[in-house]
Amino acid sequence: MSITHALLRTSALALFLAAPLTGAQAQQPAAAAPAPAVPAAPETVVAKVNGAPITQGDLAIAADDPALSLPGVDDAQKKNLLVDYMIDLKVGAQAADAAKVADAPDFQRKLAYFRDKLLLDEYLEREAKKAVTPEAARALYEQTVKAMKPDEEVHARHILVDNEDDAKKIAARIKGGEDFAKVAAEASKDPGSKAEGGDLGWFTKERMVAPFAEAAFKLNAGQVSDPVKTQFGWHVIKVEEKRVKPVPTFDEMKDQVDQYITRKTQQDLILKLREGAKIERTAAAPAEGKGDAKKP
């Protein structure tokens, strides 16, 4: 168990997260939001524990810890809870120091490991921020869009039944003038689309099983198929519309583009660092690429 988890069991922050609102608290109207305060400088001291300061910068680091997430808590209350947590943390750390916990070899190894990890994470994050520029994102988007092949989509409805005879009767009813959506709501066995009149929305060919897709993409808009058999049963299909799949806009893809640039930058950086380093695996290490762990 980590120190964070241990402290969360007893700190004011943990008690707040665990305790449900009472009826009076739940019904109490929210107070008017105060005017935004000027952010305190990172070196501003918010508390002291046996003379050791806790600063605004310390609170900011704690606030970024996913384990201390406080959704729905106003800033003033969150700050008070974080101060209480940091006080608990500092008290515990001072007691651990007095008990010479830091002198243990196992602790030193853990400390070295987490120092290296934090350093690497911070370094990769800084380098990625340099790479994720508006110009780089736009260039990657345009390169990706240019390489995309036009992809046809259809907007179709279907009615699913158990046997061919029922499918033939339904196809005859539709081709005889009955409303497809109404018949689908009455007769279709597909719970996912029945309530929507058999509507499947827009889809590309590869998203459907082969016999269904082949039949649907051969139809023109407004046409109804003969019965089509798949592993799910027998289908009668109506194509409402056909189109070339729209290319997503830059704004729609921006988050994905930024994430790709971030991952690619960090991966390339690690590979470059390994190539420039003198790496020696001793006889005590498993042969590279021949570990016992099974890959998923």
Automatic annotation (TrEMBL):
Keywords attached to this Swiss-Prot or TrEMBL record, sorted alphabetically, are: Isomerase, Rotamase, Signal
The answer to whether UniProt assigns keyword Signal to this entry is: yes
Give the enzyme's EC designation.
5.2.1.8
**Which top EC class is given?**
isomerase
What is the organism field in this record? Methylobacterium adhaesivum
Endpoints of the signal sequence: 1-26
Q: Does the keyword Signal apply?
A: yes
Domain PpiC, residue spans: 151-241
Q: What's the protein name? A: Parvulin-like PPIase
Q: Which family does it belong to?
A: Belongs to the PpiC/parvulin rotamase family.
Give an example GO molecular function: peptidyl-prolyl cis-trans isomerase activity
Q: Could you tell me what reaction this enzyme catalyses?
A: [protein]-peptidylproline (omega=180) = [protein]-peptidylproline (omega=0)
